[in-house]
Amino acid sequence: MRRPITLLLTLALIAPAATTAAAETLTNLFFLHHSTGRNVIAEGDVRDCIAAHNAQHGTAYAFWDHDYNALGLTGPDGDKPGVSYQIPGDNTDPDGLLTLWTTSNGARNLILQNHQVIAFKSCYPASNIETEAELAARKQWYLQMRDVFDLHPGHVFVVVSQPPRHRLATNTAEATRARAFADWLCSDAYTAGHPNVVAFDLFDLLAAPDDGSAAANRLRYAYERSHYDGDSHPNAAANAATGPAFAQVLIAASSALSVTTGAGDLPLAPAVRLGSHPNPFNPLTTVTFALEAPARARLTVHDLSGALVAVLAEGELATGNHAVPWDGRRADGSASASGVYVARLQLPGAQATTKMHLVR
Predict the structure, then answer these.
(1) Is 0.85 surpassed by the pTM of this model?
(2) Domains of the chain and CATH, by start
């Protein structure tokens, strides 16, 4: 018998508010996927791996996953409670994920409300990238998603690269772009400076090496379900290899926001009252903020695409008020163009941003 949605959301799920304390280890794990992810979970024994970790270490991780809307949510015990989050368009391709994370919708609200460590992936069609312009668009979409993740520092987002295509279902140019996309998602270019964004490179685990061979960047021959029909779903051997690795990444991600400087130390305090003055400015503005306790901090400037422009401060900062000037110059000393820039103050487990308008 199906349990009512209200019972599930009020009793079974244990996600915290967005202000989760930085030293808390998150225990509610979630994975949004379609068929390839379903096979990783089942044939890779993801739930058993997490249960074994709990038994060995005395932890209490609970793993939830969401398949196609028609299949909906599956709980830690492997049972389906009869709940679907109704992902917009039932679409987990990159454009669908963009809609999910950057627009106001009920699915996003439920995922954020009910889960703490949130993993998501596209299926293998996302490895069909026909042009360099399409690759650039994908990157821009994921930067827009990351902007949303920055607004939820109490959650950890695990970005899973897409699986590769079968060698009979792709070509060299598309496979090369698929590798480039996965490499970028799992590089410092995407994750650095965003403590609540973690990457899991499923593509690299499943794909043949980028070695210039005819099979490069395609699904490994040993991982093909069929050698003849081009089915890109990885086989049981592939999933047995990737499932335990994925479980370990989820568990590791659960402590990404747990920051202490030594046994018994208190969690580092978040920044408060981040701002800049004057704003708009030319040529100089001062970024101001206050800390409630001493903290390791990094103050940076980014453009609206998320690219790093300058590092203004980095290191241990004292309690109290701070004022850091920025003269509109980039890290290489060149002058930034007119436009809107984002000052980002990052502390372990917390961050704040403010927009600054440079007018030349």
Answers:
(1) no
(2) 5-253 (3.40.50.1110), 271-358 (2.60.40.4070)
